[in-house]
Amino acid sequence: MKPLQKLNFSNRYTSVAIGLHWLMALLIISLFAVGLYMHELPLSPWKLQIYSWHKWAGVTAFLLVMIRLVWRFTHSPPPLPINMSKSAEVAAHIGHGLLYLLMIAIPLTGWLMSSAKGFQTVYFGIIPIPDLLTKNKELGNVLREVHETLNFVMIAIVVGHAGAAFKHHFFDKDDVLTRMLPKRKH
Asked: Tens digit of pLDDT for each residue in 72-101?
């Protein structure tokens, strides 16, 4: 165990972890949907505005995943159900690890792609974010393909993640899903 980590003896995630989880879920699904929509638009001021919004939301998602990682490394999650098989535990850890990896890699590939294509990101139209690469159209096209592919991989893992949560809830009858839901007031 890491020395900075607070132990969680509850079966629930903290309210901060729950809030960050659902905010990231909303952002990821929205970014994916907007990405699909904007990809096919003809070049126009509307398309450029949608691209700006997409990039701003991507930067926000990247910042939120950094906050989420700090929270995760300083607050231990609730334990997995005791009746989970070792293979299910390994799958859960791999799935979560891949989700975190993709939540970092996808915005980074978007940033690299924008840099290589020569389109600087200006966060909310105010804060210029430095380009990481010099303009290189061929590299920009490769990075676009990588960015798109990683997004489809992310959606597949998100669907698997949600499917596993529903399996736990409806078939295993454990608290894996409900401990990540906001508390209801009685």
From this structure: 999 999 999 999 999 999 999 999 999 999
* pLDDT tier at 8, thresholds 50, 70, 90: low
Cα separation, 119 vs 121, whole angstroms: 6
| Residue type, position 182, single letter | P
Two tokens, residue 52: 């700006």
Angle 86-117/45-74 helices, nearest 10 degrees?
A: 140
Beta pairing partners, 128 = 122
The rounded mean pLDDT for the chain is 93
**CA–CA distance, 53 with 68 (Å, rounded to integer):** 22
Is pLDDT at 3 greater than 50 in this prediction? no
Residue 68, Ramachandran bin (φ over 0: left; ψ between -120 and 50: alpha; else beta): alpha
Residue pair 102/95 in contact by the 8 Å Cβ criterion: no
Which two structure tokens, joined as six digits, stand for 5? 């980590």
Joined together, the tokens standing for residue 131 give: 């380009």
